[in-house]
Each structure stands twice: as structure tokens, then as C-alpha cells.
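RECORD TYPE: inverse folding
INPUT: C-alpha cells
STRUCTURE:
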């Protein structure tokens, strides 16, 4: 539906919230360090810990469907929380600022849920664990996105447009450092083949370590990044915010194309990501946690790191879209390696190609979104919507992938995984082509 915006009188004005001052290198680090902790958190849990726990505590037979059930409901919660909390933060008038209060309260809740997750296998019988895992993952998504959704708008708040690509490069750098740290730590600490008492201790250690990193990094960020509070007359309307988020694509066409492209590319990423550990177990016959966490993911993310920095810098000068095209080609090549070279060496080469493309995409995608933001001073709301379009593919991707793999269990040569990678190539191709439709961004 097409919405006529008549809320300008209630909006915070750009002069109150934006700055044109160039951001120093140290300030860039402080603005983006939070993404290290956040991605350490999710990479360890989603790539290694949760798939491992599902097999260890719930059994091997229905692992694809059980993992889908654990992850899907919480991810749907995140899709709703991101845009609404982002919109609420746009109008928050607390002395701490618009974004930091949510980071503090969300992290406090997040740490409590992590502690609950750590000890849940010892507190509940195995028959109840599927329901417990689903419930805890819902709380985990709610609390973590309460913290990170408003912070997604911090670049638009504090960084001038000419530096956003560079700042997005720092965002990409700290994201990848968090991903590498989470992969290595969980891959080294966890092995589902260990005896149950030892495995329970490994689970406790990794969850408590994640919680400690969250506390330390968030405390540092809150102390070093200052915000100018909004005036008390700024007013939030839930009805207007929900209404404004449901807009006809032609209202903000460039931002709508950015959202669609992000949805498609992330469908490809998340449709495969959750099942990589099982691919390594079933097809390559190696230890899924250790191969994924200690070899594959670190190699992939190490190749992503330089491109994440260089792509953000390059996109400031030569445009965003060409970098997205190149990243799509590299991620497609990675899928072809998975299909035609089903051995550990082929997987590591695929990881390197995927990392080159993924690093460039994650860096430029953020800058592309901030460039295409609608002409209001509600960056929190619209970047929350952008975040939701990165989370929604997690639900769709894992649901499609889980059902596909479960139905294809009996097919020879692990053909289910081949179908999964072919579908991923399709997502990448369409998502990359969609970028061409963005007219207001180079």
C-alpha cells in the first residue's frame, strides 16, 4: 500500500542528530568494535555450537529438521524486533542517547540467556531439550537484536557520507574478526564425539566465554562512543512506525531494490551456512566442528578480511555496484567447487573464493544501504528494516535447506547437498542482477 508521510512535525531533525565532522581513525574503531563481539557470538553459536548440540543431545537421524526447528522461530522474532526497536531508538530521548541504552539493556538480557543455554543440558531431560532449545533461542534472538538493531544506524548518525564506505570497511573488518574468533574458539573447544560429561563442560565454557566478551566489548563501546541526546519533545508512534515500514516499493525505489538484493544474496549465504558442519561430517567424513571451526571458516574469513577493507574504500571512489557484481561471481565459483570437488582440499579452495566475495559484499552492502536511505532522519528504523532483510533469509534458507536435505537423504552421492548449492547459485545470480536497478547510487 502507498503511504503518504505526514509525520514530519514529530521527526527528529537532521541538525539535531547528524554530524558533518570527519570521523577519526580511533573513532571509527570505537564505532565498529561492537560488531566484533556480536559476530563472535553468532558465528560460534550458529556455525559450530548449535548444530553440534542438536546432534549430540537430540540425535543424528533428524538433525536437519531439528536444527531448522531450533533456529526458525527465534529468527522470526528477530525479523520483527529489528525494525521496531530501530524505529523506537530514533525517538529515544534518554541522556545516554538514542542507541546506547538499547545496547546496554539488550546485552544484559543476552548474557542471562547465554548462561541459561550453557547449563540447560544439565537442568532438563533430553526429551525436553528440543523445546528448551527453541525457547532459549527465541530469547537469544530477542535480546541480542534489542542490542544490535539500533546500533546498525550509528554510521548514518555519526559518519559523513563521504566516509561511509571507509567506515563500512571497518564494520566489515570487525565483523570478520569476530567471525574468525568465534569459528576458531568453538571449533577448538567443542567436539560432539567426546564423552557426554566432557562435552557438557565444553558447552558451558564456550557459552560463558561468549558472555564475557559481550560484557567487555559493550562496556568499552558505551564508554568511548558519545551521543547527543534528542530533545524531550521528540515523539515515537508505534502505529506510524509500523505504517511507514509497510510502503509501496515505488515510494523509495532505490532502498527497496537494496532490500530485495540483500534478501536474495543472504538467502544463498544462510541456505548453506547452517548445514556446512553436516556437509563436512557426511560428505567429507571429517570432524565437522574441527574442520569447520579450525580450518574452513578461518581460511574463508582470512581471505574476506582484506577485501572487506579494500572494497569499502574502493566503493567510495569508483562506486558500490561494481564491487557487488565481483563479489557475486566469487561466491558463485565457491558453490561450483563444492559441487565438483567434494574433498577437503576442494572445500578449502571454495572457502577461499567465497571469502573474497563475501568480504567485499558485506563491506559494500552497508554503504549501499546508507546511501539509499529514504530522505528522513529515521536511520534507525530503516536500518532496522535492512537488518531484518538479512535475518529473514535465515528462516527461509534453513527451512528450504532442511526440508531439501531431509527428503534427499536416500539419494546417492549426497545429491541433496548438490541441490542445495545449485539453489544457492540461483540466489546469488538473481540478487546480483537486482543491484543494477538501483539508480541513485553508483
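DESIGNED SEQUENCE:
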Amino acid at each position: 500500500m502507498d503511504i503518504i508521510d505526514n509525520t514530519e512535525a514529530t521527526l527528529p531533525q537532521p541538525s539535531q542528530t547528524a554530524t558533518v565532522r570527519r570521523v577519526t581513525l580511533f573513532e571509527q574503531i570505537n564505532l565498529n568494535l561492537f560488531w566484533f563481539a556480536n559476530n563472535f557470538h553468532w558465528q560460534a553459536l550458529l556455525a559450530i555450537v548449535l548444530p553440534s548440540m542438536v546432534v549430540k543431545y537430540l540425535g543424528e537421524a533428524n538433525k536437519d529438521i531439528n536444527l531448522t526447528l531450533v533456529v526458525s522461530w527465534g529468527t522470526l522474532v528477530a525479523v520483527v524486533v529489528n525494525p521496531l526497536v530501530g524505529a523506537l531508538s530514533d525517538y529515544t530521548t534518554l541522556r545516554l542517547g538514542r542507541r546506547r541504552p538499547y545496547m546496554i539493556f539488550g546485552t544484559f538480557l543476552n548474557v542471562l540467556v547465554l548462561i541459561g543455554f550453557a547449563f540447560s543440558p544439565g537442568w532438563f531431560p533430553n526429551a525436553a531439550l528440543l523445546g528448551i532449545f527453541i525457547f532459549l533461542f527465541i530469547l537469544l534472538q530477542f535480546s541480542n537484536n534489542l542490542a544490535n538493531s539500533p546500533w546498525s544506524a550509528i554510521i548514518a548518525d555519526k559518519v559523513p557520507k563521504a566516509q561511509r564506505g571507509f567506515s563500512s570497511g571497518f564494520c566489515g573488518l570487525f565483523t570478520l574478526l569476530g567471525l574468525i574468533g568465534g569459528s576458531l574458539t568453538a571449533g577448538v573447544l567443542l567436539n560432539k564425539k567426546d564423552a557426554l560429561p566432557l562435552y557438557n563442560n565444553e558447552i558451558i565454557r564456550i557459552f560463558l566465554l561468549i558472555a564475557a566478551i559481550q560484557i567487555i566489548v559493550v562496556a568499552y563501546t558505551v564508554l568511548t562512543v558519545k551521543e547527543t541526546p534528542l530533545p524531550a519533545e521528540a515523539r515515537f508512534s508505534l502505529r506510524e512506525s509500523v505504517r511507514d515500514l509497510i510502503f509501496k516499493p515505488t515510494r523509495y525505489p532505490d532502498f527497496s531494490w537494496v532490500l530485495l538484493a540483500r534478501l536474495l544474496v543472504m538467502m544463498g549465504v544462510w541456505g548453506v551456512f547452517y548445514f556446512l558442519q553436516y556437509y563436512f561430517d557426511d560428505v567429507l567424513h571429517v570432524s565437522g566442528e574441527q574442520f569447520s571451526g579450525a580450518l574452513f571458516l578461518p581460511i574463508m574469513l582470512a581471505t574476506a578480511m582484506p577485501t572487506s577493507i579494500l572494497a569499502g574504500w574502493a566503493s567510495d571512489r569508483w562506486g558500490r555496484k561494481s564491487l557487488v557484481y565481483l563479489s557475486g561471481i566469487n561466491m558463485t565459483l565457491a558453490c561450483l567447487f563444492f559441487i565438483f570437488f567434494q574433498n577437503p582440499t576442494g572445500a578449502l579452495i571454495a572457502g577461499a573464493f567465497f571469502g573474497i566475495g563475501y568480504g567485499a559484499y558485506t563491506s559494500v552492502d552497508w554503504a549501499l544501504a546508507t546511501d539509499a536511505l529514504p530522505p528522513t532522519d529515521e536511520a534507525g528504523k530503516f536500518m532496522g528494516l535492512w537488518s531484518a532483510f538479512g535475518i529473514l533469509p535465515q528462516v527461509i534458507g534453513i527451512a528450504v535447506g532442511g526440508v531439501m536435505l531431509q527428503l534427499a537423504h536416500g539419494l546417492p552421492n549426497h545429491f541433496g547437498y548438490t541441490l542445495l548449492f545449485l539453489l544457492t547459485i540461483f540466489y546469488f545470480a538473481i540478487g546480483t542482477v537486482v543491484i543494477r536497478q538501483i539508480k541513485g547510487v553508483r
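NOTES: Residues 112 and 211 are 8 Å apart (CA to CA).
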